[in-house]
């Protein structure tokens, strides 16, 4: 296979895996269901990804890469806005829900937690860099440490993830995002 | 059995069930494990609670009753403070994690979602009443609707639940709670 074919195959696997995790959850996404949703045999799938964990983490890393780009350009609140806009798609809540499902593993399986942590760390780092640029530009409030503002934004993001994963709608989210943005902005 | 005995038995069942759900998660808390943790036979347990769902929801309702009292007296941020203080107890993250586990059921099982919603509605109502009293007292910011402030606080609470359920610590939470309280307070 050429590199182009390999990349296309990888994208096909990740897209199908995401749909499968969203529909059936982490536990419910059996190898058989992954095969059906992806349209490839287990041999072909696990030629590209070591195991189900690696497949799951690769889908999460794909999200993280998109989030890092959005954070760098427009901040973590924009990530929340984008997420809320996709809330009506059934795959959104399902995929977020499958992330909640792994919370037990995150608490009890240090290797899995370390692999997940790389993803969170990339987003945290992008958020911190964006906040530092905003502080230099004088648009960020100056009376609180960067890390407090960063953790405040991450807490709000986590809250939106839980909210959507529990099947609640996000139609009234915009005024709340406005309040969050105002809370971190420099007072004029 | 006298009413006192019935109440004590009910408390014993709920305490054991909470420990069991915290240790093994919702799915992992089998009837056998519930029997062991509670120290009663399945017959005795399900004489008081119809099924595992009812037991799970009763533990959650117990939490909700405590939360409603704290909200009425000191607001939802105090609930977050109390939760963060119990974060080091292994049962805290485990029990929160078992709540994340039911997110799929909340999205797909309307009857279960309706029973869970009663719990959320009681906390939301207590929060709204507290905010209305605070607005009358002139300590709440007056430039945003009560429901926006309420949803902002609920989002932050959900964020803390997810944060702790994922096994992260809460030692640096106080400055973040300070920022949240300031964001809803009337400017002096």
UniProtKB/TrEMBL annotation, chains A, B:
Residues 30-49 bind DNA. Pfam families: TetR_N (PF00440). One of its GO terms (molecular function) is DNA-binding transcription factor activity. Keywords: DNA-binding. InterPro entries: DNA-bd_HTH_TetR-type_CS, Homeodomain-like_sf, HTH-type_TetR-like_transc_reg, HTH_TetR, Tet_transcr_reg_TetR-rel_C_sf. Residues 7-67 form the HTH tetR-type domain. Signal peptide: none annotated. This is AcrR family transcriptional regulator.
